[in-house]
């Protein structure tokens, strides 16, 4: 994983992010996209 990714989230920070994601899914406010340029490692 690239070193510039923040890998030191606290449990509370993760919970806030997951809550936001769940709200978006429940409200159908999301778009799934495929990035053809993304490299898989």
SSE layout and pairings?
Layout: H1 11-26
Structural account:
The protein is flat, with a radius of gyration of 14 Å. By secondary structure, it is mostly helical. The longest helix has 16 residues. It has one helix and no strands.
What is the gist of this entry?
The chain contains 1 helix and no strands.
The stretches of 5 or more residues where confidence is low (pLDDT under 50) are none
- Rg, please? 14 Å
Report the average pLDDT across residues.
82
SSE topology string: H
What tags apply to this protein structure?
single chain, 41 residues, mainly alpha, 39% helix
